[in-house]
Amino acid sequence: MDSTRRLAAIMFTDIVGYTALMGHDEERGLDLLENNRKIQKPLIEKFGGQFLKEMGDGILASFDNATSAVICAAAIQEESKKKGINLRIGIHQGEVVFQEGDVFGDGVNIASRIESIANPGQILVSEDVLHSIQNKKGIFYEFYNEVQLKNVAGKRKVYHVFVEDAIFAKLLSSKKTPQKSKTKSSFFSIKMISWIVLFLALFIAGFLFNEYILKNNAVESSIKSLVVLPMDNLNRDTTQDYFSEGMHDALINELSRIPLLRVISRTSAMQFKNTDKALDKIAKELGVDAIVEGTTFRIDNKVRIGIKLIALSPERALLTETFQKNIEDVLLLQDDVASTIAGKIELTIPKKLNNNRPSPKINPEALEMYLKGRRISNALQAIDTLTRAVELDSTYALAYGALAETYIVATIRGLLEPDIAFQKARELASKALILDPNTVEAYTALAEIECHYNYDWEKGNNLLKKALEINPGYATAYFRQAGHFVAAGNISESDRVMAIGRQLAPPAYWSAGYNNYHLKRFRQAIDNFTQQLKITPNDDRVKLRRALCYIEFGELDAGIEELEILSKRYPNDPKYNLELARGFALKGENLKSIKLLKGFLNSQDEIYISPYLIAKVYTGLGEIKKALEALEEAYAVREPTLIWMKMEPAFASLHSEPKFKKLIEKLGLA
Asked: 510 with 532: CB under 8 angstroms?
């Protein structure tokens, strides 16, 4: 029997829940199988693949390259969802043996094992596939896990991939199917040979031109991604660091508005402040083509910004320039810097975003308050400082937007009563949009109000989409979208959007951990928060979230130990102490739990106590009726964390309760 050995991308697909369906509705199961075949076979061929065989409800296919396999897999998932078919897909690239229309080898086995560990709606790929696709436009990925695959030697890193709809939409709408080339007997005719000779001559000429003429004049338009490193404060006054950081933020925001440019978020860039790491290593770690280094210097009423744009592979400076303006013209200064960088890499900031922008002049003192307020981690203190900024300059749209967002954050953290705080945030966000319709933070603030307070998920999502139209690189909007999808239980969409956000803000451990907790991926969430603590070791909010993962994962001692440390540090903060009360209850130490709970219930007249937290303690104590009453109270006061109740692991014991189901319906999450 003839056989050939070659490198190929192997794709396995499998219908979720098919065996169970066949057990009670065989006719429907057979229809599903036929529909699955009708979807997949034409798509596999359209994307240049080979439909090899069906194995029960699974389909095996091969592709000449990993990129085609991944894009085809995304198209299959999209079309299958429309037909109500839920698939798992696994892809591996390796050397396999083709024989009589079938394929054999370790590569096939690995693809099959990867598919088996995927969640419904997911596309998982091996590290071998990742190496081929990680720089392809429109394909996003995130690390999924390092696993031991059955009957495969050694652990394997597996990645979750997503593809922008536009990448495969054009091919899906096309009626033409790519045809494989066929060998003709006249291939080596004299006429064909002459064409080959001519082609080779042109190819060599083009190569020489590229090698000797263009080699030292690289095309800047090849830059599709960059990171702006933290800017150096040349005043050498650490009390002025907030100004350098503010200019850093502003430049990132301006560049992020460019649709075809991926700009790494501030959070990810800040980890390289004062680093001695080589630029090529930073670029590789973040997956970018270029790096922007900058300096700030203030003297009297003048602001000077120095910029250096450095392309990698090979490393070379494309731009070195200094910009200077009066401090009240700082918005124009930021525009000049961003436009110059964009022009150098042959991209353009959309003109429509400059329409209806407010007067660019800013009260210098208001600017100071705004930049300081953005740096303050205590939300209530930040509100005071940003309020001062808008009092000093009533036309400062950015300050209004930032203040609206900060009210939202403070409310979600349980620091303010929802009714008053959300109303204030709405007023501030609306004012920002009147002053400047392109204030993205105003849109994200309004989106949170719609979802957390009005439970209007469609309107909230549309507001986030609007923010992303203005600033396609605004990672916060993607993380908010992912959170909303998690709250609704839409896991595949949450993972897809989260992956895009993590491309813009790698590694985004906090957001990933928060979502993984609600998806009951506790081990992954613990790893996420542990990695985050390596970057921000003093962030007690991260320690709290990790402790909750330990508690829900059943590692009660580890969770309680961490919560007791936090409780001693914040003896009057309900979120640390009531979570500890739940931990005690789950461990059977009910007296300790009740003592903590009663202490805070008695102080409700003095501080705001979230009914949501109280409900969590009651579930730990097994007080189902009281837990439901607390959740109904949370709904009455529009407690913002209530939107997570459907996916909150602590409420698993309530899911069958009629009152719980009714609340889910009221929230629009049924």
From this structure: yes
